[in-house]
Amino acid sequence: KDQMAYYLEIQDLPPLSGPLARRFPLLTPLRPSLIRPSSRPNYGKRKKLNVGVVLSGGPAAGGHNVISGLFHHLKLLNSSSQLFGFIGGPKGIMTCNFTEITAPKLAKFQNQGGFDIISTGRDKIESPQDFANALDACKSLALDGLVVIGGDDSNTNAALLAEYFYEHNICVIGCPKTIDGDLKNEQVPCSFGFDTATKVYSELIGNIMSDAKSSSKYYHFIRLMGRSASHIALECALATRPNVVIIGGT
Q1: Does pTM surpass 0.85?
Q2: pLDDT tens sequence across 109-164
Q3: DSSP H helical ranges for 100-230
Q4: Among candidates 53, 142, 58, which has minimal Cα distance to 92?
Q5: Which end of the chain is more exposed for a tag (fewer CB within 10 A), N or C?
Q6: CB contact set of 123 (below 8 Å; sequence gap of 6+)
Q7: What is the pLDDT confidence band of residue 250, given thresholds at 50, 70 and 90?
């Protein structure tokens, strides 16, 4: 019963088109897929897979559970499959600094905040040498795939890696992580981290508002994270109803 949540079903989507197709010509023939939870097993045992995972950018609540879900699903498909975590963000890929994710190691971080299981970083894989080093690291571990957990910059980097790795049969998957809430589309209604961040901020804002009403003495200006998208500011404003909220034009 506990494993039922790990079953998935896949639905094909229309192929890439427009600017994306022109930017990623090798990936364009591949049909995007929508992956949804399923209550029943719809595949048999798969071959052993080696998969790498990296955390990139600022921490967001839920990161450890994304790695946990990846680990358990790999083991469900084939108990011999291995998950390797690159330490310290993208730099860990370029320097091949990794650790194997195991059940005992994972147990300490299940349902915990932070990104401390393998740490994170803000380095980018940009130069031709960076891409070559990343490929060498993935080949040395015989990886079948690499999962990049990050925000908009990190997922752009993941797309570039996917194009670069395509001819070497290494799949790259970008997992949308950002408290800013600016990674969303028809398939991704909300990136993980946004809900927790706005609830925590709203509680703090509510406390300050109560204090402000009690003293009737000061104006309080609260500046929130969220880059130029302002989704965090708007969500917190809807929850707490301040006098004024200033949001970005984007």
Answers
A1: yes
A2: 999 989 999 999 999 999 999 999 999 999 999 999 999 999 988 999 999 999 99
A3: 103-107, 128-140, 152-165, 194-215
A4: 53
A5: N
A6: 89, 90, 91, 94
A7: low
Residue of 132 and 250 predicted with greater confidence? 132
2, 144, 153, 180: the catalytic one is 180
> What's the CA gap between 99 and 60, in Å, rounded?
21
Give the pLDDT score at 41: 67
- In 2-16, which positions are buried (b, 16+ CB within 10 angstroms) versus exposed (e)? eeeebeeeeeeeeeb
At residue 44, the 3 state secondary structure works out as coil
- CB neighbourhood size of 42 (10 A): 9
Is residue 180 part of the annotated active site? The answer reads: yes
Cβ atoms within 10 Å, residue 249: 5
Q: Which of 224, 227, 248, 228 is nearest to 236 (CA)?
A: 224
- Beta bridge mates, 189: none
15: tokens are 């192929």
Across the beta sheet with 98-101, the strand order is 98-101, 82-86, 50-55, 145-150, 171-176
